[in-house]
Amino acid sequence: MSDMHLEMQMIQELCKLEGHDGALLERLLRRGLDQPYILSRLLAHRLCGLAYSVLQSSGLLQAFSPTFQCALTTAYHVNVQRATGYREALNQLAKILSHAEIKYALLKGAYLNGIYPLGLRVSNDVDILTQDISGISRLLACNGFIQGYMRDGVLRQASRAEVLNARMNRGETVPFFKRVDLPNMEFLEVDVNFSTDHQARGRRDLVSSMLAQAEPLIDTPSGKPTDEGIMRRVYEPETQRTFEYISSLECKEALLDRVFSADRIKQLKEVHL
After folding, report:
1. Can you name the residues that pair with 189 across neighbouring β-strands?
2. Taking residues 244-253, what's their average pLDDT?
3. Structure pTM?
């Protein structure tokens, strides 16, 4: 067993959004863990906000060293500011995309940011899946986005050769950037994906299926985005497939409880039936 197995056990418990074991955390704390190592892993994987929330709800944050407390508390509050700006950026992006009849889906952080409590998840960019690469690229360019690369805080516009090379050899375009000057977010980065496996010639049937099943996250009478929340299309089938796979295993009950909340399991069971 690894020399750091107790530290890893602590890290795993600190990463549980729901169902963390406060008694286990207390027992582990009494073992004199290597707190700098735990902190380094949380920082490396951007999990400080989640660990802060778990320790606060367990009443155990004060049991850690002042350095550990300060790092988690600072990271959490920075995450809150960044997530607030990120949600506002998503609202702005949704308004732009609502003006065109383009099929697309928001992926990964763009969806999950609206599900996790504020400050617990950090996202650096917005991932969009589409088959209309040219349409979305033109739309973004017309609204102030620049295709390029960010190096040391400086945006370098991509050459035409770089743009074409990305489209021919990868499953996504050169990133799009726009200055937004939101809390802890000077630029918004948008990655336009047209493949699910990072290959330019990926499975188009799968992408078509994903786009066909994408649904608006917030419905409005007009079908247009509102100012109050994150808009438009999300990819729900991925969650459903995960649920169905776990349900096929012998240890499904234990695994489902670790992955989903009780309410989420109920919702997914209704869809599954």
Report:
1. 177
2. 61
3. 0.65
